Amino acid sequence: MAPRVLIADDQSDVLEALRLILKPEGYQMEMATSPAGVLAAIERREFDVVLIDLNYTRDTTSGREGLDLLTQIQSIDGTLPVVVMTAWGSVEVAVEAMRRGARDFIQKPWENSRVIAIVRNQIALSRALRTGQRLEAENKMLRSGLNDGPGASGDTPQMIADSPAMQPVLRLIRDVGPSDANILITGEPGTGKELVAQALHAVSGRSGKRLVTVNAGGLPEGIFESELFGHVRGAFTDAKQDRIGRFEMADGGSLFLDEIANITPSQQTRLLRVLQTGEMERVGSSRTIRVDARVLSATNADLHEEVSAGRFRADLLFRLNAIEIHLPPLRDRRDDIPILASHFVGSYAHRYRKKLSGFDSAALQSMMDHAWPGNIRELAHAVERAVLLAQGEQIAVADLGLRQGKKSELRLEDMSLEQVEDALIRKALARYGGNVSQAAKALGLSRSALYRRLDRHRPE
Length: 460
Ligand SMILES: Nc1ncnc2c1ncn2[C@@H]1O[C@H](COP(=O)(O)OP(=O)(O)OP(=O)(O)O)[C@@H](O)[C@H]1O
Ligand SMILES: [Mg+2]
Description:
By secondary structure, the chain is α/β, with parallel strands linked by helices. It contains 21 helices and 16 strands. Strands 2-1-3-4-5 form a five-stranded parallel sheet, with helices on both faces. A five-stranded parallel sheet has the order 7-10-13-6-14. Helix 3 links the parallel strand 3 and strand 4. Helix 5 packs across helix 6 and helix 11 crosses helix 13.
């Protein structure tokens, strides 16, 4: 039986082009021009793969329609492989779609051979899956050289730290981790504060019990108390039954209070009392209970400064930071960039089933030169995106998409003719949300002339 392929796009010329490209493969093809059409088609019968565009309404370029459609398809048929098509220059949406479970993506304008290969692959995988040979198919892919990198499985993510700047952190985790001391973890966003909290809990005698996390800074006034201390039935209108608070859940284990600088003065007061006495009452109850939870907390603010400014209680800070662990920003531990990056390549290549051996030297250099304001989280995201985009065995500079400061600061008079052309084309495409026809029109070019230029400027 010929494989069935469903293709959806609101532009009929796109549908026609794909039909022509895929025709020699002998598939049974069905076309849809709207999200509703796609859903109706897959309600009607089973397909082996579906290719969907991410934008359907003229003037929308966000990809939201396509992402919603992806979710709806998954709820009707969870095993149906979905490949998304995105406009040139809207890589972010493609990456988001992959995170949500799309199997692959095609960037317009596409290379025909790549479209054919993707569709073939997905059909082979989905057939294997449906005939119960899923494991075998996956193992085969794994044996064919997919990277089974560190951190690909297991609960607590591995902490990578080799640089001199991280040695004090490692030492503190080893030395004070096992104690019962309350620890305050500080550092810029994305530096690994939560990971350190997990490590501290893991090396402590409490590791057999739970590490309970609360985003303390995000709790509205009314919820804070009941969330942390619990409540009894009838304590307030919505309290239909007794509820145990986070402190009690962490009894014998550790409580991680994230974003601690953001709690209000009255929340600070309530928290202080529990830390001083180890005692609390559930909301609506007068019975005092004792809890034994070690408190780890984190913030990217400077709490000492908050204290000086009168916004944070000094006595609370004193209770929280028996020991303080400060995480240096990634720019101060550049030595760790290569090992962190290859660690992330390993786990994302595994997740997205890509065969990748690492970075080429220019890509590595661009990571070493980047400022990383978002720290390790930013690095992880950049690598995830690069893994998704990489076409070869190695990740190239262009896959990383790090802003190259110098290049964008080029002034017109310093640019070559080719650079000017490239910049104009990118601008036009961005303005028209990647719509090649409209961009071509604005530039006074035919569609095919624009495609030729895009090919010429495509990064190697
Ligand atoms: N040393 C490290 N080795 C490996 N992965 C790390 C390391 N540090 C951080 N990460 C990863 O980077 C991401 C961000 O880390 P984490 O959530 O712990 O940062 P954070 O400091 O709590 O950030 P925020 O202030 O934004 O909450 C996580 O996915 C984490 O697993
Ligand atoms: Mg955090």
